[in-house]
Design brief:
- The strands form 2 sheets. This protein has a 7-stranded antiparallel β-sheet, with helices on both faces.
- The longest helix has 16 residues, at 170-185.
- The protein is an alpha+beta fold.
- Helix content is 32%, strand content 24%.
- It has 2 domains: 1-66, no CATH class; 74-210, no CATH class.
- It contains 8 helices and 9 strands.
């Protein structure tokens, strides 16, 4: 079992093709330890009877997820069957435009340099969460996901790591580069100048980032 765990990448059996997590509650080390305890020999077969997480041990329909794995407002598939998705205020208010945009993104995007060597993209994202939350979208696809801005003409996506970004369409790129310049003008504030805020929203709560008082002074 140890050899098998080392040889097979964990992503193969814990993620779906679109990147979402497969429903699984037992740690792989625990599964391996259980199988090792059976003292298996080559040629033997294992029959599992009434074991597992408990979700299938009675007639009630249960879902282990308390929240969806992701909130998606529009999605599309490219020619290879990979899923592209987008979430955000703009996509929620313009679902048809969002689907059209995703189809264009699936056909190809440009990679551009947006940060300088001395910039810290993680600090920028912290500032962005606190200053432009309603304008942001989250967009995902075969090249992972990121945050950025989108409209009917295109999108600009800051990648999770690195100094570059994905872009299609001039207006969105202009807006995003304006945010970067605004951040630099403010002195490149980051996580140290941002605090989490819990707000009541309808029947639940929302967690938002907010600039601390020190960042305003």
């Amino acid at each position: 079992m140890s050899t098998a765990l080392a040889a097979v990448p964990e992503d193969v059996y814990t993620f779906n093709a679109d990147g979402s997590l497969i429903t699984q509650t037992t740690a792989r080390e625990r599964i391996a330890a259980t199988l090792d305890g059976l003292d298996l020999r080559p040629g033997m077969k294992v029959l599992e009877i009434r074991t597992g997480s408990g979700y299938s041990m009675h007639g009630a329909d249960l879902d282990q997820w308390t929240v969806p794995p992701r909130g998606v407002d529009a999605r599309a598939q490219d020619g290879q069957g990979a899923t592209w998705w987008i979430a955000g205020t703009w996509a929620r208010e313009h679902p048809a435009d969002a689907e059209s945009l995703l189809a264009r993104l699936a056909d190809g995007v440009r990679t551009v340099r947006v940060f300088e060597d001395g910039d810290d993209p993680a600090e920028f994202r912290a500032w962005l969460y606190a200053t432009h939350p309603s304008e942001l979208v989250v967009l995902g696809g075969p090249q992972r996901f990121g945050i950025g801005v989108a409209d009917s003409a295109g999108a600009f996506l800051f990648r999770p790591v690195g100094l570059d970004a994905l872009t299609i369409g001039t207006p969105a790129e202009s807006t995003a580069r304006g945010w970067v310049q605004e951040w630099r003008t403010a002195g490149c504030p980051g996580w140290a100048q941002v605090r989490p805020v819990l707000r009541r929203e309808g029947g639940g709560w929302q967690v938002r980032a907010e600039r601390s008082e020190a960042a305003h002074s």
